[in-house]
Amino acid sequence: MRIQQCEACSHWIFYPRAHCPACASDKLVWRSISGNGTLYTFTVARVPTLPEFTDEMPQLLAVVQLDEGPHLNTTLVGAAPEAWKIGQPVRPVFDERPGNTTLLRYAPTDSSFPCVIAADVVAPTTAPAAEVEPAAHKRRISCKDLDAMQSLVSEAFGDWSNEFAVTQEVIGEFATLSGDDYWIHTNPERAKAQSPFGTTIAQGALVQVLISRLRLPLDYEIIDYTNMVNYGSDRLRFPTPVPAGCRIHARSRIKTVQQVKSGVLVTQELNIHVVGQDRPSVINDLLILYM
Ligand SMILES: [Zn+2]
Question: Do 210 and 152 lie in a common domain?
């Protein structure tokens, strides 16, 4: 570990600054330190502060005072919440996350907790979705833990699924099966001449059910339920058509989580897009009941 020190007055500085907060000198240098310190204060957070932390609850948020003096915010590992004592000696733990990020965390100096937590091996993102194994470190969330379930709610959508080609053949098979064989879907010559789209388009209902061909790369897994029921949809829209031959993909987010009489009701917003298009072709607020 390295932190700044003032060459003029020897004051140790954290976080990094341009001037010494003690004497205003700008002669600051980076020096290596042990990283050892004492536990200044801590708190036990029993509600996840971010969805990424739901697999590590309760979370121990702490302030550590380095031997050199500065305080830093961190999280504690290597001991149960009730075992920690303010003022006890602590040492750094380098928690390597996927990518290039390392979190600085702290463990009791006398614990056998490892000094480095190695990152999970993550499948390369360039691999086709069909080949990607389930993430090695999926967060497992009990549907009975309402706080953890609530932490899944997000404005942001997850990553894109694999892609699927909506060919004229697929549209034709669905026309046969469903009886929706209107020419706008099934007759390429007539569609070219008369359709405002200049080509045949997929049935909205077809694109909606093709979600089953699209694997959403979720980084969590909901567990502890006896039954998962598709309860229908709160909202279903087909804002733009899918012309025959286009590839589609999907992404989703958890919109709401509610405790209801029979279990936990999750609204998952699914958006299916033609690849490369900003506007979705299907918006579906799917209701899933975990019982
Ligand atoms: Zn100084």
Answer: yes
